[in-house]
Amino acid sequence: EVKEEVDRQRRIQQLRDMARDEDEELLLSGEALECSKRGIRNTTSESEVPPQRLMADVFAGYGGFGEEVQNECQCETLFVDNARNPRHDLMDPSFVELVCKAILFGMFFLVHMAPPCSSFSRARRPAIRAPGRWIRGLPGLSPPQVQRVREGNALAQAAISMCFACLTARVGFSLENPRTSMIWELPEMQKLMDQPGVFVVELVYCAFGA
Length: 210
Fold this sequence. Notes:
Blueprint: H1 2-9, H2 24-27, H3 30-38, E1 54-58, H4 64-73, E2 77-80, H5 93-104, E3 108-113, H6 143-169, E4 172-176, H7 187-193, E5 198-201, E6 206-209
Parallel strand pairs: 1-2, 1-3, 3-4
Antiparallel strand pairs: 4-6, 5-6
Helix pairs in contact: 1-5, 5-6
């Protein structure tokens, strides 16, 4: 559905002149995207295209990583996390779809993601998932454990969806998790890491795409 929308628009590169000083509350709202699609001006030469878009720090927490990148690279960063903005609910599929659309429409030049790894930890006791058949959750879990597994699965899937959106839009991305995290063993993650242009750096264990 998102791909059909993007194919219909055919205007990714023209969104570079989207206002970069907008409030974060507005930037990732349906209204902002719709206004940007209606209000795009035609550029007449490469020199009129603004040089860079936003960097997105997704699962940002309180934004330490994004702030460092912002300071070092002199770029503007959009922090995506409900710790900073209650509307940025990455458990909500409709919000995740909105972020994917923003990626596909060309709002970002780089997307960094650090989904929570707690439910995927091998050190967790008692265990709530296991590699292979039970990677999405062991049977016989208590209701709180089931909830934790579901949250972990949903957030991991949100990150993977955004990674694939980045690949489609040819946007650079990184996905950070510990080397021992079972998130890397999810079938969707394995498929992602098999894509051309995706590689793994084991020192910090991130999946990168360019």
